[in-house]
């Protein structure tokens, strides 16, 4: 499947109070000549009484090892809201942007390359917070498509197909992890969650996040003895993702008539 920018919808997620961030993003997008739809972010703090019912708090504590942050639940619902907007739109794919992205000089080139290779991924990250232990999935022009056995997190800028959004949506609630951690469990979700590297953008929030505060000041980890399950979960994720990616590579090599991977 080869797509172009004509198939693309662009959504920018922004909290109304984050006016400086919006101004920076607008200037960058205008310079790139990219039209976008502004998506008003879900305010997790203001809407916590309503949003708390969508969170499995015991599972979240067990999976993450800390208390949930209202801002990350707002972030989670914001991305789901954009996915629903994509599903309801005529677009085949969305470029989803948070409001602290810095675009590199090759961003438009990378975007066109990614769209030209749209049949090879379901969700494609264009920057990251963490991306550990890459497993190559082939070349796309001058870029590399990578999956990751280790942590692959961050939602600053990514492409997602309408079909992928439709497939993922029914299983995204209740919330048991931050959204990027949930999507990172590719052994459970079974979709092609890759990166385009070298990344054509990065995130710069000035060390002041609308979710975790300045210097992660709002993060409250549980006592160490209540975080033992987290390490078990991380080991399970490492094994599960490694096996999933290895199986995908093996099945691709099977002769015609053998079991075929859908990866």
UniProtKB/TrEMBL annotation:
InterPro entries: Glyco_trans_25. It comes from the Bacteria. It holds the Pfam family Glyco_transf_25. CDD domains: Glyco_transf_25 (cd06532). Residues 10-181 form the Glycosyl transferase family domain. This is Glycosyl transferase family 25 domain-containing protein.
